[in-house]
Amino acid sequence: MAFIAAHGGDVGKREISRAFGLDGGDRIALKALLRELADEGLLGTKRRKLHLPGALPAVVLSEIVERDEDGELIATPVDWDTEENGEPPRILVRLARRGRLAGPAPTVGDRVLLKTEEIPEADGHIRHNGTVLKLIEKARGLTLGIFRRDAQGGGRLIPIDKRNMGRELAIPADFAGDAQEGDLVSVEVVRHHAYGLPTAKVRERLGSVSTEKAISLIAIHAHGIPSVFRREALAEAEAAKAATLAGREDWRELPLVTIDPPDAKDHDDAVHAAPDLDPDNEGGFILTVAIADVAAYIRPGSALDREALARGNSVYFPDRVVPMLPERISNDLCSLRPLEDRPALAVRMAIGANGRKKRHSFHRVMMRSAAKLAYAQAQAAIDGRVDDLTDPLLEGVLRPLWAAYGALKKAREARAPLDLDLPERKILLKPDGTVDKVVVPERLDAHRLIEEFMILANVAAAETLEEKHVPLVYRVHDQPSLEKMSGLREFLQTLDIKLPKSESVRPAQFNDILARVAGSELAPLVNQVILRSQAQAEYANENYGHFGLHLRRYAHFTSPIRRYADLIVHRALVRALGLGRDGLPETVTPEQLAEIAARISASERRAMAAERETIDRLIAHHMAVQIGATFRGRISGVTKAGLFVALDDTGADGFIPAVTLGQDYYRYDEGRHALIGERTGEMHRLGDRVEVKLVEAAPVAGALRFELISEGKHVTVDKRRPGGGRGRYGRPVERPHGPRRIGKRK
């Protein structure tokens, strides 16, 4: 274990065997020893390498959280799985020895990129030093909240950030500006007092919280998402001139088409397929995927480039998009509009009749999209319902695409990627910005076709860059940790489903389990639990494969308008293949790519959280007038504090406190993902169908509280194993006589 720790976790069995001089027989014993240490929780795996649980990577995005008693800055990792690794480590922040950081020195609340190292013989809570590589984001000095006016003309601010709930700020009348009761405002704290509330001053009135626009602004501000482009970036975008044919292949006669959602404004991918005329590839196809050439407009180090990196990706809300690039670039110069010349980076791929890729080549081209199609429109044409646009495209364009997709399906089935059944809901808004309804869009073959074409193009990009030895940012997805696999195995045993123990797990093993429960009442439960056992996909400059897609190498290439990772891959391809002077600079180092990967991974998680919270607030607004109504749903989460329930109609997620479940003590059984009454044996388990009544809604927080109406299942209570062997008990149960504070899943 000391050897593993000393090497920062970048070791496997081969490195250990070499270091300790082990032969074949010893390696069998080593394998057993490592498995024993893993079962005891003393070792884990990350990127197929061994590490000590809770070990920090060499470069980590961190937030400075405080100063210690000596005035030293202390940071913690921004992205840390507490469920898997325990409490986040505290890092002693050091400034770089050589030179100074550009701009102001970091302080509490700032986000910084740290190069970490373990402190030898550390004897306290702080076991790591972190050298500041870059100041990523300064602490925000403004607080967002709801203004509540008082009789004196001033008021109080109710913060919308869940971490600051209950920490109100006083706003005197002369500091209130033109804020009105119920307005969403941003304020600046101007004075702290020894006693009483801090004093704040309104800096900006953002509008009434009854509007959907204000709800989006809550998420944008709360997560620090850059939503206003800097002046110099806009100036660069406006000054950009359309790319010309010079230095490009002319593909304008190739009938490429875009297939997107009906409301899409930026079209960054177009596709084409035709039978392969090579006699050695009978039944095969030539697939073409053309991607908007964003690298032609966004040069490394430019104002637009810095802005795109700061954003990391576009963020999508029900009524708006916060784009990664200005509209002049994303919706005009780079968007593959129909019948307009556009520069593209294209990959041409030959696949066999079995769908396996035989060869590929990349080209920098000028293209002209033959048509802009919506998914449902393209699918309708294939199903026999053509319109004026699809009728002339049916035989020459659409049918070859579907024929090629038929071959790709064979390759997908042979590869057996993880195939979870998790329907996605979409919110439809009324013209006034309020919720109209929530729908589950139908999953069409048109969606799957584009998905398979894009996956193959992404694989081709990663393969080319590896072959040319040009650095890149991979899209990676680690296999589930030993700890999560152990928990999943224990849970499946409660359903009489066996998951064999093995060092290496494959997606097909999960698919076999999903196939066993498909169509049964257990299907939603098993899909959710398997999803929660998975690692989170991320970006990295080191390749450790994509477990979910069951691919050895994978890089995002197909969406450079909305993802910075794809722009990096485009630049790398331009450099690797000598396609222009705007490729990835030769001076870019692996350390810099590691920094970029950490930043855009954090930006992606930030966007996902903001999108999810906005949907929660919208639905809470929508349901606030339905207090007392009953709904059908399914238990979507179980904790010792209570149950989370997702409603069938809207997907709204609400909480049922354990103290309201019944006249019993409910303990949390981690293995079963359930709360079980100690006296009655009544069980409420993840995935169970339930009927609930809405008793409280907090629209600003996006929280709902339910009361359980239906009864749970009954099981035999094992008195010898309290709390599932972990001693985790719920609280004593009494039905509340008044409203309780709403809980919300973290």
From TrEMBL:
First-level EC class: hydrolase
Catalytic reactions of this protein: Exonucleolytic cleavage in the 3'- to 5'-direction to yield nucleoside 5'-phosphates
GO molecular function, a single term: RNA binding
Keywords, in A-Z order: Cytoplasm, Exonuclease, Hydrolase, Nuclease, RNA-binding
GO cellular component: cytosol
Localization terms from the record: Cytoplasm
Residue ranges of every copy of the S1 motif domain listed in the record: 628-720
EC number(s) given by UniProt: 3.1.13.1
Sequence segments annotated as region (Disordered): 717-746
Superkingdom of origin organism: Bacteria
Annotated GO biological process: mRNA catabolic process
SUPFAM superfamilies: Nucleic acid-binding proteins (SSF50249)
InterPro entries on file: CSD2, NA-bd_OB-fold, RNase_II/R, RNase_II/R_CS, RNase_II/RNase_R, RNase_R, RNR_Ribonuclease, S1_domain
Family to which the UniProt record says this protein belongs: Belongs to the RNR ribonuclease family. RNase R subfamily.
NCBIfam families: 3_prime_RNase (TIGR00358), RNase_R (TIGR02063)
Protein name stated in the entry: Ribonuclease R
